[in-house]
Design brief:
The protein has six helices and no strands. The chain is an all-alpha fold. The longest helix has 27 residues. The protein is globular and about 40 Å long. The N terminus is likely disordered.
């Protein structure tokens, strides 16, 4: 059985042509014939929205006592390991803060404090000392900001870091924070918030 194939070489492909439309089209309105078919005048318009010159962000709110997590100390063996490590790290922080007191441009001392606080933050969280973890985290955030901006710490920041280290030592030694220490931690977090807000405004 022979099949004949029609030659399609002479066939022209379909053409899609845009017909010229009379009249000018504007960006804010459809063609006139579309409006006639719809039966009403529909327009696509952009509304002018007044934008503020400066975006306003809410000021940081002070940390409440109910927002500070309670400590849940781990077992004695794990806590003992953390206490030994924390003692060594707090010694590094104390020594580095003395160096920073003598020379605020000492980048190595700043990094030593930053690394020690980072390690304490993680270790304190693992043994359930949430209050120590919280203030170590706040201090690390501040030190990260100083490091990334290549800004030497203000002399007033060094005592703040020392108070942070002292509170971490108290929490570590007592295996948890009592109400007095929790109150001091909340106040300290407020100071960190104020410094962060001032840095953003600068």
């Amino acid at each position: 059985i022979e099949t004949e194939l029609a030659c399609t070489e002479d066939l022209e492909p379909p053409r899609f042509e845009l017909e010229e439309m009379e009249g000018e089209l504007s960006l804010d309105a459809p063609p006139p014939e579309m409006m006639d078919e719809a039966g009403f005048d529909c327009r696509f318009e952009l509304f002018d929205v007044e934008e503020p010159d400066v975006l306003q962000f809410p000021a940081p709110q002070p940390l409440g006592a109910d927002e500070l997590p309670h400590d849940e100390p781990a077992d004695a063996e794990l806590m003992e390991v953390f206490q030994e490590e924390a003692e060594e790290l707090l010694g590094v922080i104390a020594s580095s803060l003395r160096d920073l007191s003598d020379d605020q441009s000492n980048a190595e001392a700043l990094q030593n404090v930053r690394r020690a606080m980072h390690t304490i933050k993680g270790a304190a969280g693992m043994v359930g000392l949430r209050t120590a973890q919280r203030i170590a985290h706040r201090s690390e955030d501040l030190l990260d900001q100083l490091s990334e901006s290549n800004t030497k710490p203000d002399p007033a920041i060094i005592p703040l870091l020392q108070v942070t280290a002292d509170l971490i030592q108290d929490i570590t030694g007592s295996q948890g924070a009592d109400e007095a220490v929790r109150g001091a931690v909340i106040e300290l977090c407020g100071q960190y918030d104020s410094i962060a807000a001032s840095a953003e405004e600068a």
